[in-house]
Amino acid sequence: KRDLVKYFLNNSVSKLPIKRSDITTNVFGKSKGPHKEIYKAAKESLSQVYGIKVLEIPGSKNFICVSTAPTNSYIECPENQRSELALLFIILSYIFMEGGTVKEDVLFRFLKKFGIEADKCHDYFGDVKKLVLEVFPKQLYLSRVKDISIDSEETFDISWGYRSNVEFPKRCILEEVARLLDKKPEDFVGQHEEALEESEDDDNEGISVEG
User: Fold this and answer.
1) For a tag site, which of 3, 59, 71, 104 has the least CB within 10 Å?
2) What is the rounded CA–CA span in Å between residue 169 and residue 158?
3) pLDDT of residue 148
4) Are 89 and 74 in contact (CB under 8 A)?
5) What is the mean pLDDT of residues 175-186?
6) CATH tag, 79-205
7) Region labeled Disordered — which residues (predicted)?
8) What is the mean pLDDT of residues 140-147?
C-alpha cells in the first residue's frame, strides 16, 4: 500500500492522467497479490491523510488525483499555479456561459479582447496557445475535439474536460460570473438550471478504483 500511495503522490503533481499499466509495472511488478485490496487501502489513506481523492477516468483505465478540500481562492494556490488557474477560470467560465462548447478560433478571439493573444507570450499567463492546445487538454481540464463536419479547414471544438467537471462546480463558476456582471445567478436561466442539476447529481463523485 505504501508504495502505491507514494506513486500516486509523486505523479499527482503534474496533473497528468496516471496509467493503471504504469502502476502495474512500477509498483506491483510481477507480484500477483491482492491488488484490489491494495488499491482500496491506498485510496483510503490518500483521502484521510493527504486529502486526495483518486478517480478512474470514465472509459479508460487511467486515474486522476484531485483534492478533497476545494480551494476557496486562487491566492491559496502555489505561486507558479496561480496564473494558469486564472487563465483556466476565464476559459471555463466563457465555455460554460456559451453553452458548453466553443470553436477554438472563437475562444482565442474572446481572449484577445482582454489582451490575451495566443501568438504572443503574455506577461502573466505565459504561452497561452500552448496551455490551451497542449497543457490543459493533457491535464484533462479541456477537451479538444476535431470538428469532422467541416472539410475545408481543420477546426476544433473546445469544452470542459473530465478534471474540470470534477474540480470546478458550475455553481461557483456561475456565481462568480454573475458577481462580475452585477447580476443574479438566476438571471442566466440555462446555466442556473445546469448548475442546480449538477449539485443534485450523486454521480458527480466519480468512479471508484476498487475494482
Assistant:
1) 59
2) 18
3) 78
4) yes
5) 94
6) 1.10.10.1210
7) 191-211
8) 94
- Torsion angle, CA of 183/184/188/193, rounded to 10 degrees? 170
For the chain, the domains span 1-67, 79-205
Name the phi and psi angles at 165, rounded to 5: -65, -25
Q: Do domains 1-67 and 79-205 have the same CATH topology?
A: yes
Residue 100 has pLDDT above 60, yes or no: yes
State whether residue 94 is helix, strand or coil. helix
Q: What is the mean pLDDT of residues 185-206?
A: 80
Helices (H), the chain: 2-12, 20-23, 35-50, 79-97, 104-112, 128-130, 136-138, 162-167, 170-180, 189-200
Task: Give the model's pLDDT for residue 150.
Answer: 64
**Pairing relationship of beta strands 101-103 and 52-56 according to DSSP bridges:** unpaired
40-72 per-position pLDDT tens digit: 999 999 999 999 999 999 988 899 999 876 555
Q: pLDDT tier at 149 (50, 70, 90 boundaries)?
A: confident
Q: Which carries the bigger pLDDT value, residue 123 or residue 75? A: 123
Burial class (CB in 10 A: 0-12, 13-18, 19+), 33: exposed
Give the closest residue to 105 by CA, choosing from 139, 161, 147.
147
